[in-house]
Batch of 2 targets.
Target 1
Amino acid sequence: MRPSLSLVSLLAGLALTAAAADYTPPASVYPVGTIEQTWHDAKRNRDVPVKIYYPVAPRTGVTASFPVIVFSHGLGGSREGYSYLGQYWAGAGYVSVHVQHAGSDSEILRSARPLQGLLKAESDPQVALNRPLDISFAIDRLTALNSDPSFALQGRLDLGRLGVAGHSFGAFTTMAVAGAHLPVMGTDLRYADPRVKAAIAMSTPSNRSSDTDAEFDAVHIPVFHMTGTKDESTGGARESDQATVGHTSAAQRTLPYRHTRNAPADLLVFTGGDHMVFSGRLAGSRPADKEFQTRICRGSVAFWDAWLKGDPAARQWLEGGAFAAEVGNLGTFERKG
């Protein structure tokens, strides 16, 4: 007698639940190595510094390859920042490539008038438009280097399983690469990169025109959005909807998630979480930072495992209630799609 469809579905659901019960987001599976290089984009006459965190896998008869994550820093950041994420992701079996964006990086802070430099960078459309192009250029370079015998990670980059992540201005960059039609880009579609399979956007800047579905209708890959109830930036006031990362309220940070309707989307909101908790805060850490960052690391690895490695147990752990239970009173987790 053939089992009914409902029975098959029930058994499949029970199997996934059992698998999720055995799933734990991996950490420190591999020792972590780093590589720093500066790549030159001749087309734009632009240098792109990178820092690569990678799993140090034992060399066996079969060369192990690893999924790749390209990370974009926030305004005033550099390739040296967000090291807690690079270390964690590489230890979990990912190559994490941290890109530094000239024009909105830490060099501004070394200028004679750093505050004015930051305000200028956050309102300059060309600075914003160069960022997603930096990400696509980095993917081009990684593709070329993967077959270069002189590159230490030759043959170890699985670029068929590619993710992009970023914080603040880096989340703007991430959403542009994921396919969002952001106002500063007009109708230009060249910023979306179809090679990217999943994305994580932390503290995404938004403005009045972001309160529409249309801006995010071309996003067709899973995106994990992260923010906090105190995630309000101190950027300058927006003079127009063409501005990129000026002042954004905590409520506006959730707009990209709320208006996504053509792809799976997750939303983590930390209670009391501010803008800098995602950065790994260089000084003056706050009591909840460690707890928040533990959930950022574990939730993000489960997301990568689910969507880049295709692990159904990771997806069930993330979406079936286990992760929300782990977040507990630190915040809320919801999903759709």
Note: The mean pLDDT is 89.
Target 2
Amino acid sequence: MEASGGSVLLNANESPWPAVMGGTGALNRYPDPQPAELVRRLAALYEVRPEQLLVGRGSDEAIDLLVRAFCRAGEDAVVISPPTFGMYAVSAGIQGATIIEIPLRGDFSLDVDGLLARAPPALKILFVCSPNNPTGSLVSLATIEQLAIAFAERALIVVDEAYIEFAGTASASTLLPRHENLVVLRTLSKAHALAAARIGSLLAHASIIELLRRILPAYPLPAPCVDAGLAALAPASLAATRVRVSSLVQARERLGEALRLVAGVRDVWPSAANFLLVRCTDSASLYGRLLSAGVVVRDVSRYWALSGCLRITVGSDIDHDRLLSALAQQEAVA
């Protein structure tokens, strides 16, 4: 075990000469595996105790850690509800876990009856994305609690809340005191505008956090990313984030109304996230025309039940002007 707290550090083969890069602080020492101040501030933001929080490289790393820790290759299973975030299946596949798909209902709500009836005995993790990517649909806390109770002593219910700030609803972390098999994933990538810093948090019972720390890479977050996270969690920054989120939600509704008037757009689903799911009469052609105009959206038509669909991120007013202008040109061509 490494000693800590010394002032003469000759234990980690680091350079004794501080290197200052790009205006950041000295980078010659390895960062703290779990930076105490960052963990403290994130725990305060998410209203959990510090021992209930693990910080790492985005939600992707948390998903991978959970599957590796709880699923034995060739023996255990995870359940996902497509269409949903692809990393659940990717991580399960890499680990060799069985992937059981129990699709969302036609209205993109979670098929709770199907989950309860069809979840296999080997189930170890049930992934719930709320708001769901790419549909934008929300899962109620009552439903999440129902699943946590139903699978208690049997499987983890992992609720991915990457977009929860845009939903205006309470987090599933409020259920943690009552359910030891509940895990909640949060991130600074979306609402806090820190996608490049890759700071994700896993919230769970302290025993789960302790287990995951054993397999977490030694130094998951570079020092500049930690500094960026601390800056984003300062009171003034949090206040600014709340204003930006409110503005984005309003912009989301305006964009949805505008898209519903575009020829060739069949459906624009309500969204609790920072994107809209749009079904088109000819999504491939529309995608190509947008790309030619320099506007990049996500083609999700290959996903289950999303034939002809595009996912469009809510951007700035300037972004939306370019998007709608390109769509107007498309109408003229048609």
Note: The longest helix spans residues 235-260.
